[in-house]
Amino acid sequence: MTKSKVFSHVFDEETLRNVNKLQGDGYISNLLGPIGTGKESYVFYSRDFHDNIVAVKIHRHNIDAFKSIPAYIRLRGRKSGGFIKQINDWTRFEYNFLSKAHNLGINAPEPIRCYENIIVMQFIGSEGNTAKLAIKDSDFNVERWYTLLTKFIVSMAKNGMIHGDLSPYNILNYNGEPFIIDFSQALKLSSLTINFLVRDITNINNWFLSLKYKNIKETKDILEEVGWKDDN
Ligand SMILES: Nc1ncnc2c1ncn2[C@@H]1O[C@H](COP(=O)(O)OP(=O)(O)OP(=O)(O)O)[C@@H](O)[C@H]1O
Ligand SMILES: [Mg+2]
């Protein structure tokens, strides 16, 4: 997509104001270029006032993109307010889940700031180079990654949280270490959402099966580690 097309897609008046606010408060400098595009967001890189690179994820104020937000987002139980408020709430949820995961010691970008539809977070990569998605770079220790990723899943779930979209498309390979990104579909664990935990586990298991890893854990054993009981 050309620069001007990205510009008109992302920067409606409200978003421009929000970017300006983060710049005025010193969290980011100019947006230096797109590093990723998703259905509902664009991710740019920028610099903070210490000149470190940061990632800036902007949720689009796009009604069509918003319509595609999976129905289960509604399981979060908040859908009041107008369209812009719902996008801002959704962004805040993602930021809160990212913060929670990071505080649990899970490899996830360090959260820096959330303002309206924008998240500023640690840039995962080295100067100028975004870490590659795990689906594109499987140069890692498969046993170590499986152990770590299942540990992360269990740790999140024990603390009442599900990533909700865990797959090699939302894991970056940063110097051989897995970093989980994109908490936009995260959910609180409950009997209404347990199937999303099962889906995350299944996705990870299928991926490692495809990598010919032999010591896959059964879903029920992982749920047991979590301490999940149906009457929770
Ligand atoms: N903190 C980060 N550091 C480096 N790159 C990042 C970071 N966050 C996101 N990216 C890049 O931006 C891309 C899109 O980010 P993310 O998956 O969070 O957005 P999304 O809109 O939810 O995407 P999708 O709809 O495709 O799942 C990622 O695939 C990754 O390449
Ligand atoms: Mg993603």
In short:
Helix content is 38%, strand content 20%. With 232 residues, it is α+β, with helices and mostly antiparallel strands. The strands form four sheets. It has a five-stranded antiparallel β-sheet, with helices on both faces.
Structural description of this entry:
It is built from seven helices and twelve strands. Helix 5 (142-158) runs antiparallel to helix 6 (194-210) and helix 5 packs across helix 7. The protein is globular and about 50 Å long. The protein folds into two domains: 3-125, 2-Layer Sandwich (Phosphorylase Kinase, domain 1), CATH 3.30.200; 131-226, Transferase(Phosphotransferase) domain 1 (Transferase(Phosphotransferase), domain 1). With 232 residues, it is α+β, with helices and mostly antiparallel strands. The protein has a five-stranded antiparallel sheet with strand order 1-2-3-5-4, sandwiched between helices. The chain has a three-stranded antiparallel sheet with strand order 8-10-11. Strands 6-7 form a two-stranded antiparallel ribbon. 38% of the residues lie in helices and 20% in strands. The chain has helices at residues 3-10, 13-24, 63-67, 83-103, 142-158, 194-210, 219-226; strands spanning 33-37, 41-47, 53-59, 111-115, 118-122, 125-126, 129-130, 132-133, 161-162, 171-174, 177-180, 187-188. It binds adenosine-5'-triphosphate and magnesium ion. Residues 35-36, 38-41, 43, 55, 57, 109, 121-125, 130, 133, 170, 181-182, 184 line the site of adenosine-5'-triphosphate. Magnesium ion is lined by residues 38, 169-170, 182.
